[in-house]
Specification:
The complex is a heterodimer of chains A (124) and B (224). Chain A has one domain (3-19, 30-118): 2-Layer Sandwich (hypothetical protein PF0899 fold). Chain A is built from two helices and six strands. Chain A has helices spanning 3-20, 45-56, and strands at 29-38, 65-71, 74-77, 82-85, 103-106, 110-118. Chain A has a three-stranded mixed beta sheet, with helices on one face. A three-stranded antiparallel beta sheet of chain A has the order 4-3-5, with no helix packed on it. Chain B has 224 residues and is an alpha/beta fold. Chain B has one domain: Rossmann fold. Chain B has helices at residues 14-30, 45-58, 74-80, 99-107, 153-156, 158-163, 182-192, 209-223; strands at residues 3-11, 33-38, 63-69, 86-90, 119-123, 140-146, 166-170, 197-200. In chain B, helix 2 runs parallel beside helix 3 (74-80). The radius of gyration of chain B is 18 Å and the shape is globular. In chain B, 46% of the residues are buried. The chains are: A alpha+beta (124), B alpha/beta (224). The A-B interface holds A 1-2, 5-6, 9-10, 13-14, 17, 21, 31, 35, 40-43, 89-93, 100-102, 104, 108, 110-119 and B 1-15, 94-96, 127, 129-130, 132-133, 155, 158-160, 162-163, 190-195.
Amino acid sequence: MHELSLVTSIVETVTETLAALPGSSRGARVLEVRLRVGALASVIPESLEFCWGIVSEGTPLEGSRLVVNVLPVVVHCAPCGLDSELEGVQSFRCPRCGELCGEIRQGRELEIDSIEIDDGEVSE
Amino acid sequence: MTTRIVELRRGILKKNDELAAGLRASYATAGVLVLNLVSSPGTGKTAFLERTLRELKARGSRVAALVGDLETDNDARRLAASGAPVRQINTHGICHLDAEMIGKHLDGWPEVALSGLDYLFIENVGNLVCPSSYDLGEKIRVVLLSVTEGEDKPLKYPTLFNSADAAVITKMDIAEPCGFDRELALKNINEIRPGIRIFETSAKTGAGMEEWLAYLAEARAGQS
């Protein structure tokens, strides 16, 4: 639902990062942006991609690829003392013992992991 | 062409998270308990909140509310009937409240100082998706579900239910004619958010309000 504002924020952050990066010139371009998005982040990768081209136009990100890495939910089961990945988000039970787990160890991430850049022509 | 990979590891909503952390610190300094109420449109957030404000005021608590909607100040006018200071936030199309909107509306609110409050309620925009990502600095996120909505709402919107600290079932006075399956609803909420406190309420009859108010008092006492 709010993917457009998320994409706007990503493009702003990456543009700022690039401008402040030592060793990159004014002509530096972003080739790829990699995100880590938890299964519980309620973000639809397709919607992010849909906005990507429009929002990145006219910025150093124009023409770049967006790679969305979706992370499954990981819960901590107190009785087992183990962390386990869940297959979906319909039930928060330990896959080993079936106990309900209140502690989420992974799945709410919404972050820019890394960017691949072309530094452009560095003037001597 | 020289290419390289730069690690960022930066939250996409970092700006909101930072603003929310600032708000959380100012709520704690002021000693005010802040709650963020989230539900679908039509669940009865406003009726529930109006009753809560009224009952808290009658017990001598100092309360105020911020209420978010895309357009109109209808909800603010309804809530103001409780006698509590209420301020409307119109988002003009944005589907959630964010920390910046809360900060702005608290700053420019002459009749309310955080330090003069016991409780501040934030009624979010009616939406079970987007508000889940936006921290408002609240201590307690409350998800509301009415008996007319279907017992599987928690399964359909797991992100929001999973991020809540308390759940309120509203309109319990019409549960029977609606064929509301109470056991199933409780089971589904617990499946998505194990161990969450659940309140079964009716703003009309006042059912469940005592338990809810006791929970609020306890949460406030635990905060200071």
